[in-house]
Amino acid sequence: MNPNPRQLTLLTVVHAQGSVTVEQLADELGVTLQTVRRDVQRLADEGLLARFHGGVRVPSSTVENIAHQQRESLNADGKSRIARAVAAAVPNDCSLILNIGTTTEAIARALRHHTGLRVITNNLNVASILSTNPQSEVIVVGGVVRGRDQGIVGEAAVDFIRQFKVDIAVIGISGIEADGSLRDYDYREVKVSQTIISHAREVWLAADISKFNRPAMVEVGRLSQIDRLFTDAPPPDPFPTLLVEAQVRYDIALP
Question: pLDDT per residue over 163-182, tens digit each?
Answer without folding.
Answer: 999 999 999 999 999 999 99
